[in-house]
Amino acid sequence: MAEKVTIATVAHHARVSRQTVSNVLNSPHIVREETRRRVEEAIAALGYRANQAARQMRTGRSHLLAVRIEPTRDGINGSVLDRFLHGLTFAAAAAGYRVMLYTADGDGDEIKTFDDLLASYDLDGFVLTGTDHGDVRTFWLAEHGVPFVTFGRPWDAPERHSWVDVDNAAGTAQATRRLIETGHRRIGFIGWPAGSGVGDDRRDGWQRTMKAHDLDPAGLDRGADDGIPQGAECARDLLAMPDAPTAFVCASDSLALGALRAGGGSAVIGFDDTPVAQAIGLTSVSQPLPDAAARCIDLLTDHLDGDPVGTTQVLLQPSLVVRTTA
Amino acid sequence: MAEKVTIATVAHHARVSRQTVSNVLNSPHIVREETRRRVEEAIAALGYRANQAARQMRTGRSHLLAVRIEPTRDGINGSVLDRFLHGLTFAAAAAGYRVMLYTADGDGDEIKTFDDLLASYDLDGFVLTGTDHGDVRTFWLAEHGVPFVTFGRPWDAPERHSWVDVDNAAGTAQATRRLIETGHRRIGFIGWPAGSGVGDDRRDGWQRTMKAHDLDPAGLDRGADDGIPQGAECARDLLAMPDAPTAFVCASDSLALGALRAGGGSAVIGFDDTPVAQAIGLTSVSQPLPDAAARCIDLLTDHLDGDPVGTTQVLLQPSLVVRTTA
DNA sequence: CCCTGCAACTTGAACGATCCAATGATGCAC
DNA sequence: GTGCATCATTGGATCGTTCAAGTTGCAGGG
Question: Hey, are the CB atoms on B49 and A254 less than 8 Å from each other?
Answer without folding.
Answer: no
